[in-house]
Write a structure and sequence with these properties.
This protein is mainly alpha-helical. It has one domain (about 1-100). It is about 50% helix and about 10% strand. The chain starts with a strand and ends in an 8-residue tail after the last strand.
Amino acid sequence: MAWQLSHTSEAIAHASDQINALPTRVLAECLAEWQTVDTDDENDPDRLESLTSHYATLPHDTLADAVESRALDPDHATTDTGGFVLWACPHGCGPHTVTFDPLTDDE
């Protein structure tokens, strides 16, 4: 089960920091998943890989801004049950999630 986003501005800022800390390839995967859902191509692995490869060539901050925009959009923002983990992709799959906790020195 998934929940809609209803967090404090501080928690949202932490999630934003967490998204910005994701590796470029992970951000590219998230953005590609958003794109394939938007265009009904989500069951096309070749399209997903093509988009991921393309997005991976973009600057990190551009990718982070795009993923953050989608992940925190009120129409799309979703968390796990309990609201502890924000989905950075439309599916909430493993490495494409972030917490609402502040970054630590080892991240």
